Each structure stands twice: as structure tokens, then as C-alpha cells.
Amino acid sequence: MKSIYLIPIGALLFSCGDTPKVTEDRGNNKKEGTLFQVQAVAETEAVSADPEDDAADDPAIWYNAKKPELSLILGSDKTNGIDLFNLDGKRMATYRIGRINNVDIRQGWKDSLDIVGGSHRDRLSMEFWLMNGDSSRMSHIGGVSSELEDVYGFCLYRSPRTQDLYAFINSKTGDIEQWKLSMTGDSLSGEKVRTLKVPSQPEGMVADDSLAVIYIGEEGGGIHRFGAEPQDGQASKRLKLSGEDNPAIQYDVEGLTIYYKPNGKGYLIASSQGNNTYAVFERSGENKYLGSFEISDGVVDGVSETDGIDVIRYPLGDDYPQGMFVCQDGFNFEGETKVAQNFKIVSWENIERNLK
After folding, report:
1. If residue 84 lies in a helix (H) or strand (E), which one and from where to where?
2. To pair with 79 at 20 to 30 A between CA atoms, which of 120, 297, 321, 356?
3. Are 276 and 287 in contact, with CB atoms under 8 Å apart?
């Protein structure tokens, strides 16, 4: 997963022709393929869960256009709800609303509304909020019940053709629903307009609001690309080297996000949970695989077994001149002590310089 509309939101240098390098991570999982390392420059406070709980899952970045340094990170807590953090990682608010699995944002929708959505595993629904950036608060505007037997991954999509807003939600069975969202007064409703299918369990999804495609991560099978418009049908294409046909990716493929550049340029990024790395693909064309990176120990601990990820390309103050990459950390440590999971923050320029 996982960005916003209007923002269709150390290191070993490599090129696509480099000889693959092999390193070992702290879990002794072999990492093959072209790799470079970056370090997180900050981290959020831990979620309110037991250190042994698999709790934190999916981040989303809300961009404050007036004061970018006051932008926020939303993080789902599968045991609790949604946390809002500032860019220093301090928790600003918590919404204890149940098991929210994945979250996503679209900014500047009708009447400049900033919409937050998430998959709610207790209610088998998609829940939605309006973001009030001035007060760093969200207000609930309704839920849409899914027809799936369970709900898991989630993302939003805004059509470049009609400006309509859609939500995609999936199930561990491989079934995906697409819903058209509408606002009536202060309430939101949805109409199911299409169903999709991948061969086995998916989770991570991200839609490209400019190129009108959606990427769906099949955890054990790779990344599938579908047309994102309701009339685009059922046909999909599996991205080459997006699963275990790529020695740099190990089961399973989890979070997906897009780094937007003008004219269709940019990157599709996927978390490779099995070897604690992140695979980078071209955003357009055939989504060519470019290489992988890992987040190693630095001023904060490194990252392992990532679920959700998000990225934004706009400057967010002096520490993030080209934007930031945010990821869930499956094993969070303070020194040698294991604590509850959290989200790590990487300056995008530290990643970008290795992609040139």
C-alpha cells in the first residue's frame, strides 16, 4: 500500500547491471540480489500493545500543504485502532475503534475534503473519516459493509477521468471488491461496482491515481496489475520479478506504495517481509525491477518483517527535503529490549541517491 491525491501520493550504489550481492540480516535470512542500505532518521512511539503482539500494520501520510513540517503519519494498530503521529514520531491522538488493518488517504476530494479510510476486521467493513488538519483530528463519517467473508487489505483510488473516489478491499481468500464512494451531506455511502480475484492470499494494495491502475500484492505469488476503472474488467498482469522468481524477494510480499514523479515517472515499492527488504520497480511501462534496499541499525534500530509502507515525494521540512518513506517495524527494540511495534521514518533522499 498505500498515498494522497494531489500528491498522488551508508549505502552501496547499484545499477541494474551490477553483479548481485549477498548479505546476511540479523535473523540470518539470506538476502540475494542488488541491495543497498539506508537508516531510519526517526521512529514513532510504540503502539499501545504487548511487545509480543503483532499490532502495528499500515501507515499513511497526511500532507499539510500550508505547513509541511506539521504533516502527520497515521498508523493502524490491529489490536486497537488508528494512531496519529507528528513527524517527530510523537503520538498526537489515538482512535480506539477496533481492529483496523490497512489505512489510506486521499486529499482534496469534493469541497477539498481529506478522506481517511481503513479496513475494519471486527465490523467486516470499510470505515471513513474526514481529516481536520488544523486540529490534528479525524471525524467519523460512516462505514460501508463489505460482502467478503473477512476483510484484510484496503486502498483508495481517485479516477483521473471522472474524479470519482473508489475503495478497494480484499480478503484472505483472494477476492477483491471495488466500491464507488459518494458523499451526501456529512455522510458517506458506497456502491459495489466490480469484483477481482488473485490466486491466493493478498493484502497490500496501492492505486495509481494518474495512470489508472491498481497493484495487488499476492503474498506468496507476487504483484498483480489491474486497470483501476470499474469498466476495466478482470484481466491482470503479474509483474516480472515481483515474487520468488526474484532472488531478492522472499515470501511474503506485503505493503505496496508509489513514489510519484511527473510524466508517469517514479517508483512502485513493495516490502519483502521474508528477508526484511524493500523491492523497487519502475512506476510506468512494464514496471521493471530496479533493485532492493534494507533499513539497517542507525540512530534508531533497523527494520524487520515489515507489513505496511507509505511514501510521499513532497518536502517535509529540512529533514525530509525530497519527502519520506514510512514503514512498519515488526520487531522494535530500545537498546536490547524488545518493545511494542512502531513505524520507522526514512528520508527519501537517502533512498533516491541509490536509484540513480
Report:
1. strand 81-86
2. 297
3. no
Domains, the chain, ranges and CATH? 23-352 (2.120.10.30)
Provide DSSP, 229-268.
SGGG-S-EEEPTTSSTTSTT--S-EEEEEEEE-GGG-EEE
Q: Which residue has the cell 493484502?
A: 203
- Contact indicator for 133, 140 with CB cutoff of 8 Å: no
Q: Residue 27 pLDDT more than 80?
A: no
Convert the pLDDT of each residue in 53-95 to its tens digit: 999 999 999 999 999 999 999 999 999 999 999 999 999 999 9
Q: Rounded to whole angstroms, what are the CA distances from 262 to 160, 267, 303?
A: 15, 11, 30
| Interior/surface letters 276-297, b for 16+ CB within 10 angstroms, e for the rest | bbbbbbbbbeebebbbbbbbbe
Q: What is the pLDDT of residues 261-281, one digit of tens each?
A: 999 999 999 999 999 999 999
